[in-house]
Amino acid sequence: MKKGKVNKVVLAYSGGLDTSCIVPWLKENYGCEVITFTADLGQGADELAGLEQKALASGASKAYIMDLREEFLMEYAFRTMRAGAIYERLYLLGTSFARPVTAKHLVKVAEQEGADAVAHGCTGKGNDQVRFELSVKALNPHLKVIAPWREWEIRSREDALAYARAHNVPVAVTEKSIYSRDRNLWHISHEGGVLEDPWAEPEESMFMLTVAPEAAPDTPQYLTLKFERGYPVALDGEALGPVQILERLNDIGGAHGVGRVDLVENRLVGMKSRGVYERPAAQSCTRRTRGWSRFAWTARRCTTRNWSRIATPNWCTTASGSRPCARRWTPSWTRRRSALRAPCGSNCTKARVRWSGASRRLACTARTSPPSARMTCTTKATPRVSSTCSACR
After folding, report:
1. Which of 105, 234, 278, 356 could connect to 345 by a Cys-Cys bridge, CB 3.0–4.6 Å?
2. What is the mean pLDDT of the chain?
3. Catalytic residue among 128, 182, 288, 356
């Protein structure tokens, strides 16, 4: 049964279970041409391999795949990190800022192709539908947004698997491994399956980026990460681009079991959701920025930052923040981070990232003369800090 007059739809396509089912469903129910758009945010070569052929085999007339990794990091992830934003003190917002950059280019492709609608595979009970649809409406309010999860008869992932089998759509998900995942350079999230039971412990086979802490090396690995204006620019003395830095930190941190978190978070629609996240690179960068900011900021700025860590992620995770307020707030953080240009040392061991030192070149934005600081890490204890700057004592 046709649901409305739509000539051409651009679908935000991941190749996962939901969006794989949406391609034939849109053609059946809207009688329209379907074009898929995939944003490469660092999902990995395995996930992107054969995606274009899969989309075309499912019924799409054309498939776009765009490499947005650097834009994703520089314009979204790192800016959020500079603000110290951590939703509910645990979630580093990896999916929250992945959706707006995807929606931005989804709209561009729709305009380029002359489409009159876009579609997404977000459910009707999460935050992603809000992130996608507010972004689309802000960029092009004339585009119709189709959300199949709010329209079709499929009510569970088991139903979606049955639909895929009936329409000969190849998917990697099985009823034994039925996790819903979202992966990019900043993190990978796991939902569904046994995680629906809050009493159930995550299965070790579920994890993809990190080893179990029990299996991590006993010897710590020391790293030096250099920042300029709050952005990481070099790792262990080697100047690298943002994508290369995150890829290396994911490999190193993952090998040491860094970055796992199991949390129950509050969604915009009033529900609670359990998710397990792996974010070795994101946790490594975030810990370092929090560490060196203590050297350079006054007590008042640290207090303001603590407020920002609560308020900013609420804007990010729901995509409903005050735009004028956010616009005024962001430049202030840029100024406060601008003089911070120094290497920071840390070590990775047994699922922990710990400070191991800060360069004497760390500039102090609050004073005319930069402090010379030393940080000593003791085994499984709080780091001690001693400073030769009398004003900082």
Report:
1. 356
2. 80
3. 128
Give the pLDDT score at 126.
Answer: 83
CATH architecture of 8-179: 3-Layer(aba) Sandwich (3.40)
3-state secondary structure of 343: strand
pLDDT at 236 over 70: yes
In the set 58, 96, 135, 180, the catalytic residue is 180
180 is catalytic: yes
pLDDT digits (tens, 9 = 90+) for 198-224: 999 999 999 999 999 999 999 989 988
E strands, the chain, are 8-12, 33-40, 62-67, 117-119, 144-146, 180-183, 188-191, 221-228, 231-235, 238-239, 260-266, 272-278, 341-349, 352-358, 373-376, 384-387
Please say if 18 is a catalytic residue. yes
Q: State yes or no: is 197 an active-site residue.
A: no
- Nearest residue to 256 (alpha-carbon basis) of 287, 203, 212: 212
The alpha carbon torsion through 130, 133, 136, 141 (nearest 10 deg) reads -120
Looking at the predicted structure, is the pLDDT value of residue 364 above 50? no
Longest dimension (CA), the chain: 76
- 128: annotated active-site residue: yes
How confident is the model over 72-122, as pLDDT tens digits? 999 999 998 888 888 888 999 999 999 999 999 999 999 999 999 999 999
List the catalytic residue out of 99, 279, 305, 337. 99
Locate tokens 């804007």: which residue? 315
User: How many CB atoms lie under 10 A from the CB of residue 309?
Assistant: 16
CA–chain centroid gap for 374, Å, is 32
212-245+252-259+282-392 has CATH 3.90.640.10 classification: no
Domain spans in the chain, listed from the N-terminal domain onward: 8-179, 212-245+252-259+282-392
